[in-house]
Amino acid sequence: MMGPHDLGGRAGFGPVLPEEDEPIFHADWEKRALGLTLCCGALGYWGIDASRHARESLHPVTYYGSSYYAIWITALTALLIRHGEVSEAELASGKALAPGKRSDSKMQAAAVADVLAKGAPADRDITAPAAFAMGDRVRLSKLSPRGHTRLPGYARGKIGVVTKVHGTHVFPDAAAHGQGEQPTWLYTISIAGTELWGATAEPCTTVRLDAWERYLEPA
Amino acid sequence: MMGPHDLGGRAGFGPVLPEEDEPIFHADWEKRALGLTLCCGALGYWGIDASRHARESLHPVTYYGSSYYAIWITALTALLIRHGEVSEAELASGKALAPGKRSDSKMQAAAVADVLAKGAPADRDITAPAAFAMGDRVRLSKLSPRGHTRLPGYARGKIGVVTKVHGTHVFPDAAAHGQGEQPTWLYTISIAGTELWGATAEPCTTVRLDAWERYLEPA
Amino acid sequence: MHDHPHHGSELDEMTARVKALETILTEKGLIDPAAIDEIVETYETKVGPRNGAAVVARAWVDPDFCAALKEDATAAIASMGFTGRQGEHMQAVFNGKTQHNVVVCTLCSCYPWTVLGLPPVWYKSPPYRSRVVLEPRKVLSEFGLTLGDDVEVTVWDSTAEVRYLVIPERPAGTDGFDSAALADLVTRDSMIGTGLALEPAP
Amino acid sequence: MHDHPHHGSELDEMTARVKALETILTEKGLIDPAAIDEIVETYETKVGPRNGAAVVARAWVDPDFCAALKEDATAAIASMGFTGRQGEHMQAVFNGKTQHNVVVCTLCSCYPWTVLGLPPVWYKSPPYRSRVVLEPRKVLSEFGLTLGDDVEVTVWDSTAEVRYLVIPERPAGTDGFDSAALADLVTRDSMIGTGLALEPAP
After folding, report:
1. ipTM
2. D130 is catalytic
3. pTM (predicted TM-score)
4. Residue C104 within any structural domain of the chain
5. Could you say which of D66, D110, D158, D190 is catalytic?
6. Domains of chain A
7. Between chain C's N and C termini, which has fewer beta carbons within 10 Å?
């Protein structure tokens, strides 16, 4: 879906405004929001793609009108409700009304360093050969899927060149919706500014993005 | 600019919700907002293109978070300030602090029926011949102008067919910015759903839109 | 809620803002409050979808008028007395057995005021404007209008000053109906394309 | 304001909402508040742009490391002890006399946490994400970085799980500097591409 998150090339948001002091966190609740999001991820109900989809599914007024960690908390709450780990009644009362279902998966403080240092790699081994190779001309798909996708609107239908073959990675359009990982070849595609924006492109500019094989067709 | 108004193909706004009783106006202030906007237009500072541009230049949070006539009033206020007919001090005090500059152009109640019945046609005579004819295949421009334009983002770079030649009309990209009317040939372009959305298009659907000659190139 | 954000707080704030602006502009001699009354009365009582219904009904019964409407809708509609703002350049688009038309303005709220009056809130709101070019059949089905795959759906995006009026198909069982009786079957939505003309009461 | 909407009212509301959620989840046995403390401490004190600066400085002084970084950035960076979340798949992109690189995530906020820590607000906000793919030179000039038209500007949009680290050019006048002294010249922005490495103090 080309939701509020799909921002490339849009206008109207004003200037880029770096903060004076650029604190890592602006309030204690931001710290807790980061930690809660990472800890709840460890419960295993959702992966990063479902998590992103929950954020980009917020109404545009909420998405554009909320600060970054407020978006995280709103989306996290929706995910917890969807998976039955938190109820509206609990949120209203501010108290647990039933025990958690996956408390066995609780991330312990002692495990944090290992979990963060390990991360969650997205590459998977598959045997299917890559359909494209370095230097191939490709057209990015015009598909406008109703669910999660990682092909930005501004690049759809545009022609580019494969500049790197990354291997096979989890396919977000499937993984975000509980349809398994469906590992798919991933490529970097280089697109000329003029292909994206015609004569309104700035001189000598290029955009490179990563695209799964299912987003590509020969051109 | 592909501002908050450029909505075709975007997602996240929820279902279409017709109102139960569909009143023409929901409160008295909506009536006054319509009337104020039309009356102020008669002062002659701006045309419909500049007026649209003032609305679409609102921040997305304001544009998506405001009701229709609230957008009109916010944009109208900005235009009146820009042209020096209202000051911030007047808005803060709620009182006129200086006489209007173009009070000679005030639309009288007795003139309303004629003004509305006459409208403001956009067609102009020019002698330059049309570059395209019925049935021509054309590509819609990829240009992403920073100012006002009436070529929606979803159609940029797409191929269609000319299905009607309308004549020469005021060119909004110029008129919105005080660059004169620059009358330009206007066409209806028919674009297949699959050209816009690939295989995610619904079966047997077509979009037709009106496009000025400067938005088109032969395809 | 976001589709039509009329919270109490917006209402109060807007009432105050608009009243202040009208007061200032009146005091400055730039607007005549009576002119606003006149404009409001026009769109509340004179200009509305009954105009369009009369055009459609006449097109159904008068082949010459129908041909004129196809050839030059602006002139044909003007001949019935409907002219002016947001109707300066009209085009009539005709539904048929295998052709359905539906109108939108994805970029703002362009709408044929002279024949339909002021647009409803849903027509001007992001959900309709964003979705109908991508999934017209789905949107129409939510309006209760499910079309077969053999029917071509054409979405007219009003990106210029041309305004589109859908001429729905004449319902069956209306032989011998006069224009007035037919016009009663022509809903506003049938002229936007989000509905069909009504069947006559049995 | 909209770039970073931290009104007093949001602060109060968010403090209450987040506290309630943490309380509920703790009572349900789903989270350990001490784990949150640990996560926060990690990104406040351990993982940040000094990691990336060490990588860049080593690439400037150690040709073998530089070659390894070009060949397999994930492994090369891991060899310095920087691994994990939001750095699982790394690619280093090298600036040169006629090549400048700048990184964005137009769709969310992807950023190489392992080498740069958590991203600044501007990187995650709509103005940067919307504009830098369309007008990178203009955005860079607002950061004080004006590039000649002979320099190709490549914008890397992080649409997958690959994370990009820009290797800025080594500043002139740094012959004989050791890694630690060089790392002091490597700003976070120079590794995003919205800046250059600092010139050494004269």
Report:
1. 0.95
2. no
3. 0.96
4. yes
5. D110
6. 28-118 (1.10.472.20), 137-218 (2.30.30.50)
7. C
